Amino acid sequence: MSRISNVIDAIRRIGSRSQKAALLRQDRQLEGKEVLERGRVVVHHEGEAITGFHAKVEPCPEEVSSLSLTARQELMIYSSKASDLFSDFGIDPSASLLERLDQAFSSWLHASNRLGYSESDVVGILGAAFGDYCNESLEMDWVTVSDQYGTSTAIDGREFEFRAFPFDSIWKRIDDAESGFFASIYVVLAHQKQHSRRRGNAA
């Protein structure tokens, strides 16, 4: 554990801007929780290698439920607006969806004229589009997760136990003025699917 702590401390001092920002986000996420394990991890998926940070905390009670029909309909409306956002910011239509998501967020984040798209608009549109893509390609589904820290909308593996929070992830990057993360999150999720425990009620 001390060796890993030394590595993390070194990254805080001499790591890249994105590495330092990732550690700060993790620090905030872990605040008030009992951390059992923490370190750096490198994941590989289809030729992609992503370096990130993982943490294991003491489990706390949570309630996971399917998204309501009304909430799903709202997400469908948001997701349907992604093509307009891509077009408005001149995103290459031939690029993959993950590339377009990253390019659109970066263009909006650094634009002097955000063309009327508020922070909430961008989080809703890109988060819904990313979540839908993960649901389809990684066999996940929209859920609501509630615990002692609050309630969030997430995507959850249907057959395997892995999860992500698309909207929360975007909000954090707005605060840190960081872009270029959708593809990385996807690679991590694909890796987690391959190495996660099968659900007890899965066929």
Low-confidence spans: pLDDT under 50, at least 5 residues? none
Name the assembly state: single chain
Assign the structural class, choosing from mainly alpha, mainly beta, alpha/beta, alpha+beta, or little secondary structure. alpha+beta
Number of helices: 8
- What share of the residues does DSSP label as strand, in percent? 15-25%
Q: C-alpha Rg, in Å?
A: 17 Å
What's a quick, concise take on this entry?
The protein is α+β, with helices and mostly antiparallel strands and 203 residues long.
Explain the layout of strands and helices.
Layout: H1 2-14, H2 17-30, E1 35-45, E2 48-57, E3 62-66, H3 69-80, H4 82-88, H5 97-110, H6 119-138, E4 140-147, E5 150-157, E6 163-164, H7 166-176, H8 182-195
Antiparallel strand pairs: 1-2, 3-4, 4-5, 5-6
Helix pairs in contact: 3-6, 5-6, 6-7
Structure description:
There is one protein chain. This protein has 203 residues and is an alpha+beta fold. The protein has 8 helices and 6 strands. The chain has a 4-stranded antiparallel beta sheet. A hairpin with a 2-residue loop joins β4 and β5 (150-157). It is globular and about 45 Å long. The N and C termini lie far apart (37 Å). The model has no long low-confidence stretch (mean pLDDT 84).
